[in-house]
Amino acid sequence: MARADTLARARTLDRPELAYLMRFPTADGVRDLELTWAELARDTEWATARLREHGLAAGQRALLTASGFEGFWGHAVIGALRALKVPYGIAEAMGWDHRRTAVFHRELTPHAVIGLSAETLEGLAGMTDIGEMFRSTPVVLARPTAVPVLRGVGVTASVISAVGPALALECPERSGAHVNGAEWRFGERDGQLTVAAGEGRTSPLPETPLGITGRVVVSRCGCGSDNPRVLLAEAN
Ligand SMILES: [Zn+2]
Q1: 130 — alpha (psi -120 to 50), left (phi > 0) or beta?
Q2: What pTM does this model have?
């Protein structure tokens, strides 16, 4: 059978609702949660709006550093970049792949670098001046432990982080990382963040302590958003 016919037949088959099994650490051990295609589509829409706030637009380029197991948010960010018509390169976020980040950064001159890790920065610091490298990049979205390192060398970085099953993304106001209040309920208990699934999620998740030190801010952000923000101790 011709390949086109095979694909046409495949499209008529039922598609399972399950897109990913998310695995994330909590205060009491690892937890699994199902993620459906419909939820992934909503997460992608949310990430698209956040990246648009950072000025990402068609014609620019981006570099994403993420690991395969982070697909539950990486997929949403990739979907957002596609929706915004921003071509991207992907490097692994683990330290051993820092050279790929350096090559993509040189070749793509990206408008945005998304997901920089402290491990990548540590690798890069051995071969280049990371301040010089990233000060010229208009949008740097870095993981919590990488943010103080970048700010220390004069790079204006905003936080991007998985927080339990949710993605937290700081807007250009840089006053805490926004989480999607329509999908997740964040709280704090004894200085630690908790999360519960919103009513619209397929997999129930009662209030769960995440073992992450931080605070939740629910007042309106300077950007005009009413999405709650998490202030992660690691990022400060
Ligand atoms: Zn904001």
Answers
A1: alpha
A2: 0.93
